[in-house]
Amino acid sequence: MHSIFKRFREPIFVIALLAVPFSIFFVKAKKGRELSGLDRAVIFVIAPVEKTITLAAFGVIDAWNGYIGLRNVREENVLLRREALKARQLEQQSAELRLENERLRHLLDFVDKQGEGRVMIARVVAVGASPHSHTLRIARGADDGVVKGAPVIAPDGVVGIVSQLTGSYADVQLIVSPLSALPAISQRTRSRSTVKGTGDISRCKLTYALRTDDLQEGDLLITAGGPGFFPQGLPVGRVVKVEKKPHGLFLDADVIPAVDFSRLDEVGVVVGFPSTLMPPAAGASQANARPGGEP
Amino acid sequence: MKLRIVLVLLVAAGLAILESVIPHLLHLKAARPDLLLIVVLYLALRDDVVQGAALSAAAGYLSDLTSATPAFLYTFLAVLTFVVVRTAGSALRTEGGVQSAAVAFGASLGHSLVAALVFGSFTGAGFHLELSPLLWSAFGTAAAAPAVFAILRRLDAGFLHGEEAPGGMR
Known about the structure:
The complex is a heterodimer of chains A (295) and B (170). With 295 residues, chain A is an alpha+beta fold. In chain A, 33% of the residues lie in helices and 26% in strands. Chain A is built from five helices and twelve strands. In chain B, α2 crosses α4 and α4 (73-87) crosses α5. Chain B contains six helices and no strands. The longest helix of chain B is centred in the last third of the chain and has 32 residues, at 131-162. At the A-B interface, α2, α3, β1, β2 and β5 of A face α1, α3, α4, α5 and α6 of B.
């Protein structure tokens, strides 16, 4: 027996390495992901490094904009250069501060307008490692009161939901993920539909929109709200490529997300909203969304 | 050899961090290279079976942690990619930058297709295949492959002086 194992050691090992992950994936494929101790330990090590690199890189960029970019001015008269440098530095710093101030105020104004729940500002520190993943990592976690399934929003609209989290960090599953689906209504016609992720970061699919609905290109879709979903009235995206087939109940259309996910530095996590009280399989629940709000 | 395993794991962890930070910093939407897939390719073509498969699983696990997909999807896919590339290994050459880029491009396409198929079939999300991001990702992976291969080759070169090369050196 031992000699057989020794002889077929390699194929047995490889088959086991294929079978074990696949079995776990197969069993848990339709459930929300729960982080194991090992998962938490690895994220505990990796996430601070990601955060440090991100903050350091932004610091370097700021320094470049604020100081190094002005070095060419030094070729001018020394006194004038010094004066100009000081003035420019101050101007750059104040401009940077003003922009940051405006951005944060914009976010806070937006936060104040959210009636239900409390919105917590979170810095984006990384994106999903795989090109096929549609996640953001934010520097807020369970220790800050974030829970799995919590809606994540930006001033421009809906971002996604918290799919997994550790004490200090959380991963946000974007609405463009194929696992994501959220009920929406057209702001103009009030017709209901579901916006489903396609895996393409710049496009979602509109499903369950009735063929008889007067949906037109450019129509703004907003969240429909309801228990277990995003707060009502948040921009989701704009309808494009409306195709009404001669038969069938529903029309086909694409949705361009309201948020540019590649340019998010800060997001808001809705804490205390009813959806954040959902069980761990929140992603699956949102994914099974149907028009009308029933999960 | 244990030191090499640790170093390969550290390289994989470093690449995972780069993979998640660089697109954020550069605001990349497309052309995101799958750096950990390149590590798996390197291992499949140059490591011995047991060690290479185990390290590939570890690289896949790192992808898993930030993908928000059901657990162990990318771990399984990494080992599967290792097996397929290992099986086809005799037909693949990666000495030059262009060759490694070509292999990475093909592997990225295949990996993405199988990932979409497995993901769609078992999660109930349905089969979604977007050609444009798939191609951009494959181009990004191909562009990054020579650099990642060079890093791993340099790492292995340090071990060649002291001991036998890892199995299957080509």
